[in-house]
Structures are given as structure tokens and as C-alpha cells.
Amino acid sequence: MIRALRPTAPALALLPALALVPVLIVVLQAVHGGGSEIWAAFLLGAVRPSLDPVLIGSLLRALEVTVATALTGWGCSLLIGVVLGCLSSERLWLTFRWPGLPAMLLRRLLALPRSVHELIWGLLLLQVFGLHPWVAVAAITIPYAALVARVWRDQLQSLDPSRLEALLQAGASPLSACFTAFAPAMGGVLMSYGGYRLECALRSATLLGVFGLGGLGTDLELSLKSLRFQELWTGLWLLALVSIALEQGLRQWRQHSGQARLAQRQVLGFVAVVVMAVVVGGLWLARLFPDAGPLSWMPLIWPDGRALLLAAQELPWLPMIWETLMLTVLAAGIAIGLPPLVLLLSSCRLWRSCLGALWTLLRLIPPPLTVLLLLLSNRPTLAIGALALGLHNAGVMGRLLQEGLDQQDDGSRTALRSSGASQRVSWLYGLLSPRSPSHLAYGAYRSDVILRETVVVGLIGGSGLGWQLLESLSSFHWAAVLLLLASYALITLCGEVLSDGSRQHWLQS
Length: 509
Description:
Blueprint lengths: L8 H6 L5 H10 L5 H13 L5 H35 L2 H6 L5 H9 L1 H5 L2 H12 L3 H26 L3 H8 L4 H37 L5 H10 L3 H31 L4 H25 L16 H10 L2 H29 L3 H16 L2 H9 L6 H26 L3 H8 L4 H39 L2 H11 L3 H31 L1
Helix pairs in contact: 2-19, 3-13, 4-9, 4-11, 4-12, 4-13, 4-14, 8-9, 9-11, 10-11, 11-12, 11-13, 11-14, 12-13, 15-23, 16-19, 16-21, 16-22, 17-19, 18-19, 18-21, 19-21, 20-21, 21-22, 21-23, 22-23
């Protein structure tokens, strides 16, 4: 009986890189004349950024807006997310001897805000409240709070309840028993996941600026569209300094929280830091925008059933959904397969250092700016959006993979080298093979993120649901907007289910 061939773990980590082949073929075939000069000017601007004091002062103020927005949105989302996560935990409701049905209903409702990307929230709130600094804060807070609530609730449900039951049987009140039993473990989750969400908030605040919601992203987009690459790189280097400082600080933070046994006092101290971040960020924004005033609601005329039916008949559903799914598959393939592929080329320290700088650069540039840059020498295609989205997420995947490989035991690789295996084979099976399941598990989660982010490149690249959503928003076609949002949320929720299943499979293998 012939056994079916099954690819090995490292092969499964490398195979997604095949998505690069059709993407690069389409992109390279669509290159037009003059593109080389534009790219040469872009690369030259990286080593010769503008040092004009007026420009630097303007960029620093824009960077202040971005950082203050990220800090405020991050703090608000953590506080709201923890509260919602507790309220959506059936275990806590049953501990207080309350029925668990409200917790289940809240958990289902929270799936809707987290399924919609923060950029869509920003564009919708912009239509309702106008241009206001707190619109960007709310756009980050709403989906992030729902994501934090999901992670917090899942972690609460996965904890061993024996300690909680012992405290309750000893006569402790439900509130004190929950805090004593869960605070140390959940404090580690809050500090680790909270740090990750702060990095995401900084990237989201920059992205919202690209679409006109203020901050450094707006300046970067204007510099790119006017081909002022030296000014563009000045802003990118400033953003890089902030990002690298944040990454190093969070790395030390994670190492400390991972080595220390968290006490209740440390957890309360971290909560106080989050509250302070909200206060400082809010006051910072008030100082930067003294004339902003309160948010003013602009009433909307909601569409009736007839308008929804007409919009459903007008929209090109199959092409939109197909392009969105293809964007996701191609970008996810690039994000998952590119990091191990380039790491396989060489294992020397210099090459790893160069790749570390590359991962930082790829994470630094928002995907819409990459799309705009590619459009300077190319025509709009789905491949451009997939390449921009894949490279940005490859920066995230590459950093995590490289950090994991650096921390991994080198014994298997050394043994393979001693037995006569080549350098690449020993790296592939001695280092990458044990790391492949965790890399693929995070790749499954990242694919879910990419599905949400397809709207980002679709808004510029002219493909998928994102493009149609932008068209409907700009024409105030609210019936189409509602239908597109509903379909987008449904697709992302289905993707979330598939992502969770794939992640569990690889974590258990």
C-alpha cells in the first residue's frame, strides 16, 4: 500500500512563499518606463533625508499627535476591554451565582466591533462627527477593546478553577476570591498582551493619519504624493526611532514580567499606569488641539428596506468577495513563507542583522504608502495590494521568527552539523523544524489580521470590498455602506473561526 506523501514541518513553513511567484510576475510585467528613476530617488532619500529645521519641527508636532492618539486609544481599549472581558466570562457570572446567558450574549455581540478594521471605524466616525482628534482615538478604541475582551475572556475561561473554589469554600466573598485567584495569572496576560497592543496602536494611529485623520501619517502621504522623498524619509526615520525605542522598552518589560512572579500589587500598579496613559494622552491631545471643542453629532438618514434591496442588486458581490479572498491568500502566503525563505539563504550574523533592519523597515511603512509607492512605477492591480500587505506582515512574522530562533537551543543543529549535514540542512531541520509549528500557528492568526487589513490596500489599490466601501462612503450611499459592512464583518468572522481552528491544530502538533 502506497502511503501518501506528507510535507515536513519546515517545508510547510516555506511552501507559502510560492505566493510570491504570481505576484512578482504580475507586478514586474506591469512596470512602466520612468519607474527606475522614481525608485532611485526614493532610495537616495533614505540616506539623504531632509534636515530642514522647519520641516523637522512640523514632523515632530505631527509625531506628537500620532503618539498621543496611540497612547490614549491604547489605554482606553485596555480598560474597556478588561471590563468587557470580565462581563463576557461565564465563569465569573457563575461565581457570583448569576445566570451565564448575559455573558454569552455579550460575547456574541463583541464579535461585531472587532470584525471591523479600525480604518473603517475611523472613516465611519469621520462621516458622523467630522474631523476631530478624538475620532482617531475612538477608531482605535472600539475594535481594540473588543479584541482585548476576547483574549481576556478566553484566558479567564482557561484558568484552573480549583484555587477559586477553595477560596469560596473557605468563606471568601466572590469578588475577593476572583481577584486573589486570578490576578497573578491574568496580570501576566495583561502586561504581555497589553504591550503588544501598544505597538499595534502606534501603527494604527499612523495608518489613520494616511487617510486624513491627522498625525504623522498625513504628512507622510503628502510627501509621497508630491514625490518629496527626502521629506518622506525624515518622517520615516523619526517614526523608526520611536518604534525601536518602544520595541526595546517592551522587550525589557516582557522579560521582567516573564521572570518575576506577579503579585497583586504589581497588577494594580500596571492598571494605574494604563489609567495614567489615558489621562496623559487626553491632556496631550487637548494641548495639541486647543480649539477642537466637544464632539458634535451629525445625524444620518438611515436607509429603508427598499434602498437596501436596490443596493444589494447593484453591488458586484462575486468580484468583490473573490478579490478580497485572493488578497488574503496571496498576502498571507508572502507573510508566512518569506521570513524562513530569506533566513535560509545564510545564517551568518551580518545577514541576520540586515534582516532585522529589513523587518523593522517593513513594519514601519504602512501598507497604503507601499501601494502608493508601487503605483508610481506600476498600474493598479490586485498583486500590488497583496505585495504591500504581505511585505508589511512579513516584517511582523520575520521579527518574531528570528527572535524565536535566537532563543532556541542550538543542540540539534550542532548535532546535524557534526554528522556531516550541510549548513542549510542543519539550520532547516535543527532550528526551523522545531520552530515551524509555532510559526505556522502565529501565521494562522496573522492571516486573520490580514483578512481585516485587506480593506486598507483595497481603498487605494482599487480592489475588493475596500474599494467599493470607499466609493459608497464618498457618495454617501448608506445602504451600500451598511451592506458592505455586514458582508465584511461576516467574512472576517468566518476567517476568525478558520484561523482559530488552524492555530489550535499547529499548537497541538
